[in-house]
Specification:
Elements (H helix, E strand, L loop, with lengths): L1 H5 L5 H24 L11 E6 L5 E2 L3 E8 L2 E2 L9 E8 L16 E4 L5 E4 L4 E10 L15 E5 L1
Parallel strand pairs: 2-9, 4-5
Antiparallel strand pairs: 1-3, 3-7, 5-6, 5-8, 8-9
Length: 155
Amino acid sequence: MLAAIVIRDEGERTMRRHIVLAAAVFMAAGGAVFAQLPRTASPPGAAVYFISPKDGEEISGPVTVRFGLKGMGIAPAGVEMKNTGHHHLLVDTKLPPMGENIPTDDHHRHFGNGQTETTLTLPPGKHTLQLLLADQNHIPHDPPVMSPQITITVK
């Protein structure tokens, strides 16, 4: 908007070019801001883990996944409480960048209401699962509270 005020007296074509440039700079700066989001501290010894399934397990039909947590509590997304977070289940993907919001898609499942289990319908074959706790803003804690990645096979 500042760019539009500064260049108001220039020709229409030049003004559009400046506005597009200003928007691109703003979006690029926004990306840098997201990379620098503050992270909530996690207490020493905090850990997430899979109650089920177990690493290497072969499973038929829908997969019930139960999340375990020690050293911290669960709070819904948007609720700021010390030493709490909510679960994210990573399915067939790598860890996201730690200083950014965890994406929401089929590979990054959010449990922002405080859920501690889910049922997945996965196609037959090998799949990887990993738990990652995040704060009220879906940003992983510092240090991150994450499980080891496990592999399951759906029959």
